Amino acid sequence: MKSYNYLIAITLCLGLLLTSCNSEPTLQTYIVDHQEAPNFTTVDLPLSVLNLDESKLNEDQKTAYNSIKRLNFLGYKKETTKTDEYQTEKSKVETILNNEAYNELMVINNHGGKFTLKYLGDNDEAINELIVYGNSKDAGFGILRVLGKNMKPSQIMSLAKVLEKGDVDMSKIKDVIGFFKE
């Protein structure tokens, strides 16, 4: 009888272990797996790249800025001779981002390119990751992960308006820009 109970306990433990593992790829695993692959580049960007004068920010913008912890970028440069490879990698990223865990904030179509903003979080008032995914049929695609703690989309959007008018320090993102121009 003891061996029967032992067998049931082992079976239950193995069943729980196998069902609790999520075999679906995540954006983080995709980035880690491709950070040194050909045609890819990764850059960890410091917050200082935003070059913001915090004294000119309102309270919501300051809260948004202070909720951001890290900026990670992964880019794929499309080569004209490897169109199939580009489509394959683009499809992998889009499949990951179409997972129900990623909530869509907005989509922007812009002159041959498309930008999608999505987020991960328990609700839309306390997100932990904002994803900006952009692709261009000519240049390739890029993923910017904005990692933080309890970021609020409304505050992030308010901060984005300041950034549009602002003075982003281009010297700190020259590697990203240069990657797509090479």
The amount of helix comes to 25-40%
Q: Beta-strand level of the residues, as a percent range? A: 25-35%
Gap between N and C termini: 70 Å
Lateral arrangement of strands in the main beta sheet: 1-2-6-5-4-3
Radius of gyration: 20 Å
Number of strands: 6
The overall pLDDT, averaged over residues, is 79
Q: Report the principal-axis shape.
A: globular
Helix and strand string, N-terminal first?
HHEHEHEEEEHH
Low-pLDDT segments = 12-20
Structural class: alpha+beta
Number of helices: 6
* Total domain modules: 1
Q: What summary fits the major beta sheet?
A: 6 strands, antiparallel
Topology:
Blueprint: H1 2-20, H2 27-34, E1 40-45, H3 59-67, E2 68-77, H4 83-97, E3 103-110, E4 113-121, E5 127-136, E6 140-151, H5 153-165, H6 174-181
Antiparallel strand pairs: 1-2, 2-6, 3-4, 4-5, 5-6
Overview of the structural elements:
The chain has 182 residues and is an alpha+beta fold. The protein has one domain (25-181). It has helices at residues 2-20, 27-34, 59-67, 83-97, 153-165, 174-181, and strands at 40-45, 68-77, 103-110, 113-121, 127-136, 140-151. It has a six-stranded antiparallel β-sheet with strand order 1-2-6-5-4-3, with helices on both faces. Strand 3 (103-110) and strand 4 (113-121) form a beta hairpin. Helix 3 packs across helix 5. The protein starts with a helix and ends with a helix.
What's the short version?
The protein is an alpha+beta fold.
Keyphrases for this structure?
globular; 40% helix; alpha+beta; 6 strands; 182 residues
